[in-house]
């Protein structure tokens, strides 16, 4: 494991501006896309890495009221990673970019220890369920349904985040 290179890759991916894709062909710079890229990079460096998903509620993120009032599904899932160090699985979450601090907690990583999960998790799902969720994220029908139900909300979040930066 090359810890210094891993820390650099974590920071590079973390600091991609968080943005929820609104089209199936858009770059995915939300928790899913960032952690898919980070997993690939850490595996190249010799880390044992796996996906992990937790459930959360958008309302628990304390978004501005004008965003919360946009119709959307409140229940959601959050993707992050776990990596193995000394035969122990540790959490690793690169979701929020540094420009979103202090509105959101932004993790730093030392290449060895756990970071915080960056949403208020309700339930951490199994690794099998986490892999299933990653597998369906880019299914066109699932994606289109999500955008139909939540697209206006996601777009408003993206705009708000840009204003924070």
Can you give a write-up of this model?
This protein is of the alpha+beta class and 165 residues long. The chain has one domain (3-164). 39% of the residues lie in helices and 17% in strands. The chain has five helices and four strands; from the N terminus they run ααβαβββαα. It has helices at 3-14, 31-44, 65-68, 127-136, 140-164; strands at residues 48-57, 75-85, 88-92, 123-124. The protein has a four-stranded antiparallel β-sheet with strand order 3-2-1-4. A hairpin with a 2-residue loop joins strand 2 and strand 3 (88-92). The mean pLDDT is 96.
Question: Which helices and strands appear, and what pairs or packs with what?
Answer:
Layout lengths: L2 H12 L16 H14 L3 E10 L7 H4 L6 E11 L2 E5 L30 E2 L2 H10 L3 H25 L1
Helix pairs in contact: 1-2
Low-pLDDT sequence parts: none
Largest sheet descriptor: 4 strands, antiparallel
Pattern of helices and strands: HHEHEEEHH
End-to-end Cα distance: 34 Å
Number of strands: 4
Report the oligomer: single chain
Pick out its properties.
165 residues; alpha+beta; globular; 5 helices; 39% helix; 4-stranded antiparallel β-sheet
Task: Please summarize what this structure is.
With 165 residues, the protein is an alpha+beta fold. 39% of the residues lie in helices and 17% in strands.
